[in-house]
Every structure is written in structure tokens, then in C-alpha cells.
Write a structure and sequence with these properties.
The complex is a heterotrimer of chains A (401), B (375) and C (300). With 401 residues, chain A is an all-alpha fold. In chain A, 75% of the residues lie in helices and 2% in strands. Chain C has one domain: Orthogonal Bundle (ABC transporter involved in vitamin B12 uptake, BtuC). Chain C is built from eleven helices and two strands; from the N terminus they run ααααβααααβααα. Classes of the chains: A mainly alpha (401), B alpha/beta (375), C mainly alpha (300).
Chain lengths: 401, 375, 300
């Protein structure tokens, strides 16, 4: 009986979608020549497709509900949290991953390594934004501005003064932090979504200034021929330098994970989490709201500035078109899709979101369509992200003796 | 544990799959030509005609038994016209051991990718990257193009406005993009150097804005007698439409990005009388006719943007490989610079900097819904 | 003076369009606190539907008025249907999810819809027929205000008035306001909250469709990407006026439109958007909840 009911419901869903997609999927017009093309076969496809998808969706929902009701959930949860906490559980996995990471450039082509480097860059960006969004709960839609600051910092200094990559790296980080503070200061009194749109505005302003102020930034044509990083003065071929950059990124990722992990458990990190949970209670506990928010902003921007420098060095070319709002949206998606506040989540999120479109090249036309659909589906079925954050619990142990 | 293992296994599978794709052992004796450009996304309409042109040329060459006794194989790679993607694209082509590259389409992406090709000693022939610095900077001896550079185009526009239209007050407008702004800046500089001209306005419009009437009113306010616009056709058609609707009847002179039939279709009656520079009209050239026919036969419709430039690029590249007797960069560069080749664009070879000799711009005007060359 | 007037009307045109889109943002935000990033795409789909219907009818040889009415009707119906469906698929399951999850879902939906139209139709710009005729009597003023601009103000004003009446006096409007204030309490009072949310999406989408139709006819071309840029601007306008507040969205839109047109006219269009965002930042620094937004003081 229930099955018939579901079939009926899915049937109506199919009819609805056939109606919905009718003008855009079925009719194609050439409004100049006055030619109308009718593609009825698409309607059939939509009907069948939505019927099946609707059934599958219902099935998954029912399973999820059942799982939620049964006791099993507790065990799965336990397994998962122990997986992330208990060294005996995660060490073998970690060892395997480390091995894979180490030998990656020798197993795969330079192209694969290059893509992986990009993914690693996004991991660091994600970790940086995770401080702002995941830990401190400040929705920042203009994170890409700090990325741009770092990239242009190296590009310009290298172009004018031939500054080396290794000097630019800390400088970019510093400049990122500085911009974080300067931009953060006036906007931090704003609440959630107002903050979001203002940061979006700042992101756009930075990009527009880079685009229009030719004397400073060379405008939309950008800066080319930026030096690749030099490692210990060794003269390297292109392939070698790509591999070297890969290992450098691995180190940076490890460093970032270490830093963010330490920050999380530090006094300031716990203040961020408290601020995210309840601002008023937090203030009542004597935490300086402005200072705490500003550090989050500045620290988040630091990572973006640093990765910006690496971006400029990797691409050897920067122009404002690389720093659009879509970039911010992708970094934010990494954080949320992976699981806000969770380091492992960010890592997995970045790998999925950056590698997926690359490997979806086989479906090149449908790539972005699938990408959008996956984002929606992921959120609908797993709103807490792929790997939800495991809350840290602190245990008080009395000193003996 | 299970989750992570599954994930790892999946990751492994995906990587090995792509590995097997990227490192597929191709028949060892083919000549591999990479074709890079925007093949998806909003700029695909500029990039895809190049792939088709290359396919047609290669099909013809292969039917005749290939070059140097080897078949030619194309490896199309998408860069969505983004510099950061273009470097990945270039790395991918290099790791697939291509012998030369046709592309990229956009100047920014080309600039980003050229460093990688240069380090790998690969010759690159672009059908559409018009940024002057690409050849004039002298940084890229491996770069050639079958299209004239932006400054040549700006010069043509300025000369036309001053010598033919004989106006003095000129408004220079651009779309803030790499191509449009670069072109507009060259036009402005040429105008400033000329004592006959007076630049009354130099400004960029925001692409995609819902309304351009403010800038249009500003053109009127500054009493401009002609507008030079640098950019692509979507913005051009919006601006010209709003100018005419606001009863501003001054001449509108634009560039190659506007010399596209889509512009006439979109702007409709407002397109009448618009001037645009474009590659010299070669539609009477028998090679052009046969290339266009071949495209219609294979793909069922008329070719798109930069098709002829790409067709010529593929022809000169393959010809040079044949004449050089190898794909080695020195010999190839020499052959490209010395050997004339009959192409749809005319008989061309390249100068020391990599610009094509014999490729230039003419001025066109929209008359009765079609671009006609202005003599 | 004439130049000032010209710029004033140019700003008014922009403001009207922003307002039609911004209303959708602000209504949805007011009721479920979600930045509906896919709203710009609804506007784009409205414009595309109108284009398709208009082209088909032109081929069939209908007269101009019939085409305008049918295209407008189809745009409104289809946009509403899309708005309704998007809510059901992408947001409804996330009612109780963490705050940022629906936002990601919305960004995903926006990417999906853009590419859906791109694949099913074309990536090229498509010419949009001038559905609004050129009026004879406007000819003497054509250099200041065109016919299509006039129609845009009139329609926008009419729609605003109707919407205000609907929100203020109808039972649906009252239920919407109640839901916006306190969802749980509204539920307890017997309001079908899910239905009200759906209705909000439908009304917002219908307004966006009208905006899409008007602007496409005014500017004469559309492609799959028009929704994104217009959407961001309209969203900015909604926040400027105080997100969640309907008069605020209208006020914010006009301020944004005028800022842009006067900045272009008197300073430079190079930094048009910089001015727009700077105004936003300035206003929010002095009035953190936007111009007409209520600053909710949280009680402990």
C-alpha cells in the first residue's frame, strides 16, 4: 500500500517537473531567424529521470529516518568519534595517507601533482576561513580579498624590486593580517548577515580597485612573469619546481593543521567558540568581544595572504579576474561542505570540491551542473558536512601526590 | 575506519583512472598537437571554433597520409579562459608530451600558460590572443599568432576616426576587461599624441550592469562627436541601443570583439551604421570558401569566432613541422619565420617577434544588417 | 539641471529593477533568515521563459499586446513554479540544519540553475524582443526618459503598492508577518507555516519575473549569467535598506540606483561599484541594521 502511495507521489513529481522544464528544456528558439525547435524527447527524459530520482530520494529519506530511530546510530557515532580521537584507530589510516602524500609526485604525472598542489592550496585557504567562519562564527563572504592582497603583494614586489618568494611569503601573511584588521575594525559591530554582505562588498572593492587602478596594479591585464619559488638556490626545471612546490605545500598544510589545532585549544580559540555560541554570555564572562573577533579576522586573513603569495608564484601570472566572488563562495563551500569547525572536514571538503571538477572533465559540459547539484544534495542529506565537528571534551584530572 | 578506507579506495580509483587516461600510450609515431582554449563556460563560443578548425585541417592532412610520414593527433584541453586553470592545462599538455600547441584563446590565459611552454621548448600558435605584450615584450620567442595585435587595431580605429570621420571630440569607453581596456588605452594614447584629437571622456563601464543610461548621458554631456569602444559585443550592443534610444546619433567605432554577427542580431536596427575593425575581409579567398564549406559539411552550421585564424594557425603550424622536418623548437621557429603558407587569411609568415606578416585590420560598417568593408 | 534630471531618471530605472529583485530577497530573509542566492537565477529564468514564449508566439503571428501579456504571464507562472520547487528541494529539508548549510545549498542551486539554462538553451547572448513599444507621446522627452523606462517605473510602483496592500491587509499578509516575527508562535496560532513560506517564495519569484521581463525588454538581450550580477546588487540593496523590511528594500534599491548613476555622471563609472559598496559600508557602520531594519536587541 505504502509503495503504491510512493509511486503515485513520484508520478506527480515527474508530471510537475515535466511542466517545470517544459519551456527551457523542450523549446529552443532562434529569436532572430524565427525558428522554433521542439525537443519532445527531453520531456520524456525529464519525466523518467525525475520519477526515478524522486523514488531514490524518498528511499534514502526513509532509511535515514529509520537509522535515526534505531539504536545503531549511537554505535556509528561512537565509532566515528573514536576514529577521530583514538590513536589506535586513526594512526594506521594516517600512516597510509602520509605514505600516499609522500610518494604522490612519483606515482602520478606532473599534471596530477600540479592539480594536487592546487587542492592543497585550497586546504590551507579553507583552514584559514575555518578560523573565521567555523570557529568564530563570523560569516565572511569576501575572504578572497586577502588572497588577492597576498598574490599582488608578491607579484608587485617581485616585478618592481625582484623580491624573492621566501621574503614575500611572511610579508604576504603580514599584509593579509594587516588588511584583516583594517577591514575588520569598522565592520565587527555588525551582526551575522550584515557582516556577510559588507565583507562581500570589501572583497569586490579590492578587486575593482585592482582592476581600475592601472598605475598601481597594471589593471585587468595583470602582471606576468612572476618568479617561481627558488629552493636553496638550486636551478630547477619546470617539472622539478612543480614537485618542489608540491612538497612545500604539503609542509604548509601540515603547519596550518598544527597551528589551527593548537589555536583551537588555546585560550583565544575557546573564546572564539564561546563567541560563536553566545555573544552575550561570552561578554558576561569577561571576554573582550572586539579583540577576539579581530584576532579571528586577522589570523584567518594571514593564511589567505600566505596562500596568495604561493598562488602568484605557482601561476606566475596574476590578474583581478582570479579573485571574484565565486572564489570566496568556493572556499566557503569547502568549509561548510567539509563540516564547519572540523579540520579533517576542511581537508576532505577541499579535496572533493577541487579535485571533483578536475576529474569531472570527462563530462566537461555537465561539470558545473553536477557540481551545483552535488552541493545541494550533500547539504540536504548531510547538513552538518561530510565530517561533522567532534566536540572536544576536557577532563579534569586531579594531580596525585 | 570503514569510511576512511572507502574514501582512500575511492580516491585511489579516481586517481588511477585519471592516470590511465592522461598517460594512455598513444601510438608512438603520431604528432601530437594540443589545442587549448575555453571549451566550456560562458566564453566557449570563442574557443570551440578553434577546435573545429584544427580538426578540419588535421583531417585533411591525415587523409593525405599525415606529415613526415606520421599521423597528426589533436589533444583539446579546456582552460575556461582563466589564467589559473590555463597553467594546469599547459602542465597537462606538457605531461602528455605534445609537440606543439594551438591556443590559448584569451590573452590572460595565454600569458599564464606561455611560461610553462617556454620552459618545455614548445611552439605555441594562438589564433586570437591579441595582447601586444605577448610578442612585443620579447619574452616569448616560442609564441606566434595569426591575428594582429591590439595596438595595430587601435591605430586603425584612431586613424579612421580622424581621417575619415574627421571628428575632434572623442569619447573612449571600455568594458574594464583585459582586452577592452588594453585596446581603449592604446586608442587613448594615439589620440593624445595627435593634435587634431581631443579625448573628452575615458571611462570603463561595468559588464552585466542592468542599465547604461548614466554613461550614455555622460557621453552627450561631454559633447563627444564619436565614441570608440573597447570590449565585446554584449556591452557594445547595450551601449549602442541606449545611445540611440536617447537620441544620440554620433558614430560608434569599435573592435574585433564587436565584429561578430551576434552583435548585429542582438542590437538589431540599432546596429545600423556601427563601425568595427576586424581582420581583413578574405571571404573571396578560395581557401576561405573551401574551409567554410568543409565546416558546414562536417558540423552543419556556419563557423564561429576566430575560425579562419585558427584554420590558418593549424595550417602554418603543420606546414612548418613538415618543412622543418621535426618538431624541435629551433627548426620549427625558423620554419615559421621563413616559410610562406597559403591560408584563408592570405599568404602569411611570421616576423621576428611572432606576429604574422600579411595579417592586418580593416574597417567594417553595418549596412542593411551585415558587416561591409569600408574602402 | 537637465543633466541632473537625466541622471536622476537613470538612477530611478536601476533602482526600480533592483527593487523588484530585492523584494524577493528581503521577504525570504524576513521569513526564514536565509540569503536565497538562487533568487537571481529565478529572475533569469523568468526572462528566459518570456523570451521563449514571445518567440514562439511571434512565429505563430500573434499581435504585440497579446505577446506581451502571454510572455508576462508565462514568466510569472514559471518563475513562481521554480521558486516554489527550489524551496521544496533545497531549503525545506534544511529548516533545522546549521545556519550556513542552507546558504551552501543556495549557492549550489544557483550554480545548478545557471548551468541548466546554459546547457538546455545557449551560452550566447540572445536578443530579447522589445516587448514594450515606443510611445509617440514620449518622443519630445526621449533623450531624458525613454518609453521603456517609463513603463518600468509605473509597473514597479504599481507592484509595490499592491504588495504593500497585500502584506498590510490580507490574511495571507498577516500570516506572513506573524511567521516572520515568531515561527513557533505562529504555528501555535494555527498558521500553516510551511504554506506561508511557500507563498513567500512564490510571491518573491513572481516579482523577480516581472523584473526580468522588464529589464530584458529594456536592455534587449539576455544570457544565463544575468541573474548573478543583478542578484548581488539587489541583495546589497536589500541589506542597505535593512534586510527583512519591505519598505527598506525599496528605499535601499533607489539609494543604490542613484548612487551608481550620480557617481557615474559626476565622478567616474570606473569606480561605480566601489561607490555602491562604499555607501553600503558607510550606512551599515552608522546604522548596523540598515536604514529601516529593526535592530533587535537580544535579551538574555
Amino acid at each position: 500500500m505504502i509503495i503504491v502511495d510512493y509511486l503515485k507521489k513520484s508520478f506527480f513529481v515527474a508530471i510537475w517537473f515535466m511542466f517545470l522544464t517544459f519551456p527551457i528544456m523542450v523549446i529552443r528558439v532562434d529569436s532572430i531567424e524565427g525558428i522554433v525547435e521542439w525537443r519532445w524527447q527531453n520531456m520524456l527524459l525529464v519525466g523518467i529521470g525525475s520519477f526515478i530520482l524522486s523514488l531514490v530520494g524518498r528511499y534514502i529519506r526513509i532509511k535515514q529516518e529509520k537509522a535515526a530511530r534505531s539504536v545503531q546510530k549511537g554505535r556509528v557515532q561512537q565509532l566515528k568519534s573514536s576514529l577521530l580521537i583514538d590513536p589506535k584507530m586513526y594512526l594506521p589510516g594516517l600512516a597510509l595517507i602520509s605514505l600516499l602524500v609522500l610518494v604522490f609526485p612519483f606515482l602520478f604525472s606532473v599534471y596530477q601533482t600540479n592539480i594536487m598542489t592546487t587542492a592543497l592550496m585550497y586546504i590551507v585557504l579553507g583552514l584559514g576561513l575555518n578560523i573565521v567562519v567555523g570557529l568564530a562564527g563570523l560569516l565572511d563572504l569576501g575572504y578572497v580579498a586577502f588572497y588577492a592582497v597576498g598574490a599582488y603583494c608578491y607579484a608587485l614586489l617581485n616585478h618592481h624590486f625582484g623580491l624573492s618568494f621566501w621574503l614575500a611569503l611572511p610579508l604576504g601573511a603580514l599584509l593579509g593580517a594587516l588588511f584583516g584588521i583594517v577591514l575588520g575594525f569598522p565592520v565587527l559591530r555588525l551582526r551575522g548577515d550584515y557582516l556577510a554582505i559588507v565583507t562581500l562588498g570589501f572583497g569586490e572593492i579590492i578587486r575593482l580597485v585592482l582592476e581600475n587602478w592601472n598605475e598601481f596594479s597594471f589593471g585587468p591585464s595583470g602582471i606576468a612573469n612572476i618568479d617561481r619559488p627558488n629552493f636553496f638556490g638550486i636551478d630547477m626545471s619546470l617539472n622539478e619546481s612543480i614537485i618542489a612546490l608540491y612538497y612545500m605545500m604539503v609542509c604548509l598544510v601540515l603547519f596550518s593543521i598544527f597551528m589551527v589545532n593548537r589555536l583551537q585549544s588555546s585560550r583565544i580559540g575557546r573564546a572564539w567558540i564561546a563567541l560563536r555560541e553566545d555573544e552575550i554570555a561570552c561578554q558576561a564572562m569577561g571576554i573582550d568581544k572586539t579583540k577576539t573577533k579581530l584576532t579571528a579576522f586577522a589570523l584567518g586573513a594571514t593564511w589567505a595572504g600566505m596562500v596568495g603569495v604561493i598562488f602568484a608564484a605557482k601561476t606566475t601570472f596574476v590578474n583581478p579576474a582570479s579573485f571574484t566572488f565565486l572564489e570566496s563562495a568556493i572556499i566557503l563551500s569547502i568549509v561548510v561542505l567539509g563540516g564547519m569547525g572540523s579540520i579533517v572536514g576542511v581537508v576532505v571538503g577541499a579535496l572533493v570540491l577541487i579535485l571533483l571538477p578536475e576529474y569531472l572533465r570527462a563530462f566537461s559540459d555537465y561539470r558545473m551542473l553536477l557540481f551545483g547539484a552535488i552541493m545541494v544534495i550533500m547539504m540536504v542529506f548531510r547538513p552538518q558536512g561530510i565530517i561533522g565537528n567532534v566536540r572536544k571534551s576536557y577532563l579534569f584530572q586531579e594531580k596525585k601526590g | 575506519m570503514k569510511k576512511i578506507t572507502t574514501f582512500l579506495v575511492l580516491l585511489g580509483c579516481v586517481s588511477f583512472y585519471s592516470l590511465s587516461v592522461s598517460q594512455q600510450v598513444f601510438a608512438a609515431d603520431t604528432i601530437k598537437i594540443g589545442v587549448a582554449g575555453a571549451h566550456s563556460g560562458d566564453l566557449a563560443s570563442y574557443g570551440l571554433p578553434t577546435v573545429k578548425a584544427a580538426e578540419l585541417v588535421v583531417k585533411e592532412v591525415n587523409a593525405k597520409g599525415g606529415i613526415l610520414g606520421r599521423q597528426v593527433e589533436l589533444l583539446p584541453e579546456d582552460d575556461v579562459c582563466k589564467p589559473e586553470v590555463a597553467t594546469n592545462t599547459a602542465t597537462k599538455l606538457v605531461s602528455q608530451k605534445v609537440d606543439a600547441v594551438i591556443g590559448h584563446i584569451c590573452s590572460g590565459a595565454t600569458k599564464a600558460a606561455l611560461g610553462i611552454y617556454k620552459a618545455s621548448d614548445l611552439v605555441v600558435v594562438s589564433p586570437s590572443a591579441t595582447n601586444p605584450a605577448l610578442t612585443q615584450s620579447g619574452d616569448y620567442p616560442n609564441f606566434f599568432r595569426t591575428i594582429a595585435s591590439d595596438d595595430a587595431q587601435a591605430k586603425r580605429e584612431v586613424d579612421f576616426v580622424l581621417d575619415v570621420l574627421k571628428v575632434r571630440k572623442i569619447a573612449v569607453i571600455h568594458d574594464k576587461g583585459d582586452y577592452g581596456k588594453g585596446l581603449a588605452e592604446f586608442a587613448r594614447d594615439f589620440l593624445i599624441q595627435d593634435p587634431r584629437a581631443d579625448v573628452v571622456l575615458f571611462e570603463g563601464v561595468t559588464p552585466g550592469a542592468v542599465d547604461y543610461s548614466a554613461i550614455v548621458q555622460k557621453i552627450r554631456r561631454n559633447k563627444a562627436e564619436a565614441v570608440i569602444f573597447g570590449g565585446y559585443h554584449p556591452e557594445a550592443s547595450k551601449i549602442i541601443t541606449q545611445m540611440r534610444k536617447k537620441r544620440i546619433k554620433i558614430p560608434f567605432v569599435s573592435d574585433d570583439g564587436v565584429k561578430d554577427d551576434t552583435f548585429i542580431k542582438v542590437a538589431g536596427k540599432y546596429a545600423e551604421g556601427v563601425y568595427a575593425t576586424g581582420p581583413m575581409d578574405t571571404s573571396k579567398n578560395p581557401l576561405t570558401i573551401s574551409a567554410t564549406e568543409a565546416h558546414k559539411k562536417s558540423y552543419g552550421k556556419a563557423p564561429g569566432a576566430f575560425f579562419l585564424n585558427a584554420y590558418a594557425a593549424a595550417q602554418v603550424l603543420l606546414n612548418a613541422i613538415e618543412k622543418a622536418g621535426s618538431t624541435e623548437i629551433e627548426a620549427l621557429t625558423k620554419a615559421l619565420r621563413s616559410e610562406y603558407m597559403e591560408t584563408p587569411l592570405g599568404s602569411i609568415r611570421f616576423d621576428e617577434r611572432g606576429d604574422a606578416i600579411g595579417v592586418g585590420f580593416s574597417m567594417f560598417q553595418v549596412r542593411n544588417g551585415a558587416y561591409v568593408e569600408v574602402k | 539641471m537637465e543633466y541632473f534630471l537625466e541622471l536622476f531618471f537613470s538612477g530611478l530605472t536601476r533602482g526600480s529593477i533592483y527593487a523588484l529583485i530585492a523584494l524577493g530577497y528581503t521577504m525570504v530573509y524576513g521569513i526564514i533568515g536565509l540569503i536565497n542566492f538562487a533568487h537571481g537565477e529565478i529572475y533569469m529564468i523568468g526572462a528566459f521563459t518570456a523570451l521563449i514564449v514571445a518567440s514562439v508566439l511571434t512565429v505563430l503571428g500573434f499581435n504585440q499586446l497579446a505577446i506581451l501579456l502571454c510572455a508576462g504571464f508565462a514568466a510569472v507562472v514559471y518563475s513562481s513554479a521554480y521558486g516554489y520547487t527550489v524551496e521544496k528541494i533545497a531549503y525545506k529539508p534544511l529548516r533545522n540544519a546549521p545556519r550556513l548549510s542552507p546558504l551552501i545549498s543556495a549557492i549550489g542551486m544557483s550554480i545548478f540553475l545557471q548551468n541548466y539554462v546554459l546547457l538546455a538553451q545557449t551560452s550566447d547572448f540572445m536578443p530579447f524582443p522589445a516587448l514594450i513599444p515606443e510611445f509617440e507621446f514620449m518622443e519630445p522627452y526621449a533623450h531624458i526618459v525613454g518609453s521603456s523606462e517609463l513603463v518600468i517605473f509605473l509597473v514597479t510602483t504599481l507592484v509595490m503598492v499592491l504588495l504593500t496592500l497585500l502584506i498590510k491587509f490580507s490574511s495571507i499578509g498577516k500570516a506572513m508577518r506573524a511567521t516572520a516575527q515568531d515561527k513557533k508562535m505562529a504555528m501555535l496560532l494555527g498558521i500553516d507555516v510551511n504554506k506561508i513560506i511557500s507563498i513567500t517564495f512564490v510571491i518573491g519569484s513572481a516579482l523577480a519575473a516581472i523584473g526580468g521581463l522588464l529589464i530584458a525588454s529594456h536592455i534587449g538581450q539576455i544570457n544565463f549569467y544575468i541573474g548573478f550580477i543583478a542578484g548581488i546588487k539587489a541583495f546589497t540593496a536589500a541589506v542597505l535598506g535593512g534586510i527583512g523590511s519591505i519598505p527598506g528594500a525599496v528605499l535601499g534599491s533607489f539609494i543604490l540606483g542613484w548612487t551608481e548613476s550620480f557617481a557615474t555622471g559626476y565622478i567616474s563609472s570606473d569606480y561605480e561599484d566601489v561607490f555602491a559598496f562604499s555607501i553600503l559600508v558607510l550606512i551599515l557602520i552608522f546604522k548596523p541594521a540598515g536604514l529601516l531594519g529593526r535592530d533587535k536587541t537580544k535579551k538574555v
